[in-house]
Structures are given as C-alpha cells and as structure tokens.
Amino acid sequence: MADSFDRAPGAGRVRGKPSNPGLVEASSPRAPEFGSEDAKASLFSHREPLRQPRSSPPPAEDTRRQSKTSNPVQNNSSTPALKAQRSESLVLTSSLSANAPEFYPSDYAYSEPVYEDWGDEYYASASLADLVQGILSHLNSSPGSFEVDIDDITATLNEWVTTEDTLKELVELIYMQSTSIPNFSYTGARLCNYLSQHLIISPSNGSFRHLLLQRCHSEFEKKNQAVCGNEETQRKFHSYVLFLGEIYLNLEVKSANGPPKRADILLVALKDLLTTLFSNPVDGNLTCAVKLLKLTGSVLEDTWKEMKQPHMDEIMQKIKGVVLDATCSRDVRQMLLKLVELRSSNWGRVHAAAAASEATPYNDPNYFMNEPTFYTEDGTPFTAADPDYSEKYQEILDREEYFPDYEENGNEPLFPDTDEDEMDPEIEEAFEKFCIESERKWKQ
C-alpha cells in the first residue's frame, strides 16, 4: 500500500494514450516518464494542426509536397520555423518592387489637367436672379437677422442694380417671393420699405416704390376675376391681398412737413379689396377678409375716423349680413363672429389711463388702485370697487374729521396743512438731515 502512494496522482499517465496496448508497444517500446522532454512532445503530438491565417501567403508548391510526405508530428512541432522559412522564400523569390512605377492599362492615355484662369468673367456669369434668390432665402430662413444684414444686402444690390431693367427684375423677384410664400409677406414688406429709401438708382420712369406700386396695381385690376376663379387663382389672389396689407403697414412715404406717413392710395385699394371679397362670400374669400382685418383693422378704422368716413361700420354690417344669409361653413361663421367681437373691444387695444383730474371708473382701469381700504366691524375688508359697500364707503369718505386732508383718487398733498412754498422749519430741517444721511450711506 505504501508503494502505491510514492508517486503523485496521475504520474506516468499520457494524455490521448490509445486503448490498445499493442499500438503503444509498436510505436514506442516504453512509455516516457512524466516531466521528461519526450513526454512533453508526446503529450501534444496528437493535437490537430493549427489553421493557417487567411492573411498569410500560400506556401510554396515544394513545401506543400514535403508537408504531405513528412510526419505530422514533426510538422506541428516545427510550425513557427516553417512559417519563417516560407516568408523568407517569398521575399527572395518575389519580383515586386516598392519603387515600381504606377500601373496603367495598355489603352490608357494620360493627359495633364488644364487649368484656366476665368478672372472676372466667372463672377459676371452669375445672374441677378440667383443673387436675389439667395438673399431672399436667407431672410426667409433667418428673419431675425434682418436688422443686422439689411445694410450689407442693400450695398450688394446697389452694385448690381444699375439699370432700369435690373430694377424691374428686382421688384418682380421680391413680389413673387412675398406672394408665393405666405410667411415671407411681412419680411418682404420690410425689405421693400428699406430698399425704397436706400437704393441709389432712380430712373426717370420711376423709383423702386413707384415700380412696386405699379406691380401691385396690375394685380389689383384682376380682382373681380380672381375672386370667382378656381382654387389656385384664389389662393394667389389671397396671398396678394395679405401682402398688400403688409405693404400698407410698413411702406413709409416721406412728407415735406412732419414724420413719414402711409400711402393713401393703398388705403383706398384695401377698402375695394374687402368689398370684392365680401361680394363673393365663399369660405376662401371670407377667410382672407378676416385675416386682412385682423392685420390692418385697427389702423384702417383709426384712419377712417380721422377722415370722418364710416367705412368700418359698413364692413361690419356686411359681415353680419354674411353670417345671417351666406351659406358659409360653420368654422368661417365662427371666425366672422370673433372678428365682430374683436372690433367691439377696440381691436384688443387698451387705452392709456386718463389724467388724474379726469379719471372715472369708466375711463381709467386703475381708478380704484389708490383708494384706501376700510374694514367692517367683523374685519371684512372693502374698497370703493365693492358694490355692496359703496354707500358705506362714501359715507366714511364724507366724514372730514377722519380724512381732513384726503383727496379723491389718492391725490394727497405731500405735506398736509402746509403750503408747498412755506414748509414748516422743523419738517424742512428733518428732511435735510434725512437727505444728508442717505447720501453719506450711498457713498459708503
């Protein structure tokens, strides 16, 4: 028993040992001992050979033949040496050279590239339409940069627009962009106003503003056919109407005396366009009229009132007639009613508060802001705006013994019981000390 434990477990065993002892005896008369060099070689002699990497060059023909006839044990045991020999043989027998010239097919004809100096002719080939289209696209994508870029844009256009034909082309390009893209009508109107004042060219046949108004007038003459046309014709006409409204709000006409004013001719045109839209009360025309009145209604009414013309009242009457009689859709009828409500609220505008001497609860929304607050016996606060306590509030105000120096609407005198020119000496001295102390603390 003691002899069986003298060696370590597994000593003398060989991995992959065949089951037939006869084969072992035939191949080797004696099994090598564990730890010897022969044992190490026999341990890995029955493994599968490693697959050659894909990137390695194929072995030479004679090497392949030699590997078939040689012992697989010897090939596997000397694989790194064979790899080195194969690489060296390939380098020595290769005919490739790093300094070889570039390869060209036999039918390839190489020619040196020819570079031509175009000079100023290249820039002259660009058209005014391309330039203006790039400018308008930039303003359309970045309308907030109008104030920053308008001076550079005008300087560039002054270099290009030097004839009457180019000026007409510029007007047409801006007009088409402003009427084809609805969101560009406001920016287009601002651009027209600026260019009308800063373009250098002024031909005898008309300036930029004159040509722009002529282009708008040519479209204005087609209004009767446009409101009755097909859907595409009406869409273009509606875009033109809204652009003309933006032109009226933004285009400034210099006057000899006083600040710039709006073009009166556009005021007449907008009134006629509204009448034409309401004459054919379909949904598209009514929607366009509502958009135009929301855009320009307050300005139109103020101007007509100054001219003592009741045009806005007439338009409201037409709207009420359309709501009652026309066969428009429910949504459009609701839009018209909202427009009438907007006009009744002075187009959503809030007038400034009246002067303190003329303030009343009806013309000054802040009338009760400076009024004092009183309290009932149970501690309930009430002001002049509470209708349940209006009589009690007025009764308290009438008691002069409580408020001898109180003036209505919060206009109390700064120094009660004193004249503004004759201030009490003690109060004046205290006031001067207060000012000196405040100035000293501020300097610190």
From TrEMBL:
Domain MIF4G: 129-346
KW Transferase (keyword) present: no
Compositionally biased region (Polar residues): 68-80
Cell cycle is among the record's keywords: no
A Gene Ontology molecular function term of the record: RNA binding
SUPFAM superfamilies, per the entry: ARM repeat
GO biological process: regulation of translational initiation
Cellular localization per UniProt: Cytoplasm
Signal peptide from the UniProt entry: none
Protein name in UniProt: Polyadenylate-binding protein-interacting protein 1
Gene field: PAIP1
